[in-house]
Amino acid sequence: MQVGIDMGTVSGGQPAKLDIEELLATRLLVQGNSGSGKSHLLRRLLEQSAQWVQQIIIDPEGDFVTLSDKYGHLVVDGERSDAELIGIANRIRQHRVSCVLTLEGLDVEQQMRAAGIFLNGLFDADREFWYPVLVVVDEAQMFAPSVGGDVSEDARKLSLGAMTNLMCRGRKRGLAGVIATQRLAKLAKNVAAEASNFLMGRTFLDIDMARAADLLGMDRRQAEMFRDLKRGNFVALGPALSRRPLPIVIGDVETSARSSSPKLMPLPNAPQDVEDLIFTPDPEEFTRPLTRRVTPAPRPTTDILAELSRATPVMSEEVMPSRPSAPEITPEAREEKMAAVLSEILDDPQAAYRTDAVLYQEFLVRSRMRRVGGPPMPMGEFRRRVAVTRAGVDDETAASEGWQTALSLSMRVSDDLQGVFLLMAKAALRNEPCPSDLRIARAYGTHSARRARRLLGYFEEQGLVVVHTDFSGKRIVAFPDLEAETQPGDANGSDDDLTDGRSAAE
């Protein structure tokens, strides 16, 4: 059965027809820079052919999930196990259900793995289920890159092999590949070469224009025309489209993507307290769960420095003459050296405004310079000790039961807030005046007094403290679990009397 679907118009206003039956046998390649209308073209093709052929869309950005509302496409989330993806792919072919595999929210390597596994599941379906299927892959250069990128070699081979099977061997299994790419130069040649139909949109780079002209059988001097194509205008060639290069204007679509091109709009009036608005976090941010990727992130510099501190490369005696090993030091001497390094770092007035990661790197470097042997201090312990040091607790208070309780309570807040919490707890245990907003802000590593007040509000919301004032309006912070509270203190006072949080104890 021959079915010609309407893709738009050609010059003269005549309808541009695409032969679906021929397309199933000869495959299609679409190229165009971002904003040229590739996704619009694919949506037009899918809408016009939805009633005639089963469709499977590999959708890296989640743009095509809206097809489910009008055309009944099943939306499959790519964040599944390998076995689940293979099973779903087999059942989709068995029951001839159109679907959208959405990979939105996954990183590039996860997208490549999920798409490769799903395509291989379609390819490996039993022979009795080899019904004709239109397999549309948007942003195909991601899944069939011409060169290796930042992803692992296993993921690249898996994805590239699946795309090669789709375009080279899929026809006998009823799989007709329709691939769209921003640049032909980024797409693997053995994948692009298997398409016999082409729709070439706007592109600017010479290498892409030359390849597009070659594929369409045009003179290279005519390649400049691809720069002048408007959005939604393409040049078509192929047995399912036209035997000669034919300009086509893609028609309208009935559905729309969830994302759209940004539109200009005026900026809002800048608020008066814009600095506090941006740099002061909401209390909810401290309790909001962090979304973590499954794939391992690049190793932090602090981890690399820690590893370098942990061991020295072993060299043979022929390469390097033997030298006396560093003298071993007692745990007490090692602890004394580490405390001296930590104190030296925190004595710097600017240390209060540096991140823990920067201070930790400096601590590791200075420890190596001081010949502090043994394994490096873990980052968690370092943060803990910095918080305690900044609180300025003396030996007597540190040995008290109340301080041990305060340390336990501080574990209920995030690492960056422990220094502030312990500063307040120390003032309560020693019956000292409540620190000012500027002192609290300094302990947090900021100059914003407003942020300090928000931190106290957060502690109060967590049930850790109770903030109130005396008759003169001075602030008092009480700790119910410690059965202690600070003396009244001026919230608007300076922090000169507690520089870096340790002078009171020293």
From TrEMBL:
One of its GO terms (molecular function) is ATP binding. Residues 24-301 form the AAA+ ATPase domain. This is ATP-binding protein. Keywords: ATP-binding, Nucleotide-binding. It holds the Pfam family DUF87. It comes from the Bacteria. Residues 482-506 are annotated as: Disordered.
